Amino acid sequence: MTSVAPDDSSGSSRLEHSPLAEDLGFLLARASAVSQAAANEALAAHELKVRSYSVLALAVTGGRPSQRELAAFLRLDPSQVVALIDDLERRGLVTREADPRDRRANVVAATLAGRSLYRRAQVDVETGERRAHAGLSIADRAELTRLLRVVAFPGGE
User: What kind of fold does domain 49-130 have according to CATH?
Assistant: First the structure.
């Protein structure tokens, strides 16, 4: 019978020097998981998670996006977006309205309650993000943001 050495408290320090820890795709996914965990922790007090917060943020700041636009931008299946909007709508945070550009589609608009909750949640998310990325200088964070935009929006500005 073989025994497995106990992991440290993070459970991953032994693996940080594996070839996988040099793989860009893995590092992006792991960094995303770390960021999402911090954001979800910050959003818990508002009964939101990253995905519902993202829909609310785009409804508040995104110029009345259609459900199709939300799905494409967030890289989610349209059925997932419908469920997120249903929940936000049930909570009185957003409304669905006919899209003036395409009457067969709906746009999502934030309510006053949605705008208010978003402002409070945004402060907590930013605080959580600063904690999660405390190892980066302000300049490093700006550069990382710039580089991630290049990866996330190829061919963009």
Answer: Arc Repressor Mutant, subunit A (1.10.10)
> Hey, where are the domains in the chain?
49-130
Kind of pairing between the strands at 94-99 and 102-110: antiparallel
Place of tokens 């977006």: 81
pLDDT tens string 75-133: 999 999 999 999 999 999 999 999 888 888 899 999 999 999 999 999 999 999 999 99
Reported pTM = 0.85
3-class secondary structure, 23? coil
Helix residue ranges, H only, the chain: 24-43, 50-61, 67-74, 78-90, 112-132, 138-152
Amino acid at 110: A
Hey, is 48 helix, strand or coil? coil
CB count in 10 Å sphere of residue 130: 12
Reference 112, options 96, 98, 92; nearest CA is 92
For residues 142 and 39, give the distance between their C-alpha atoms in angstroms, rounded to a whole number. Answer: 19
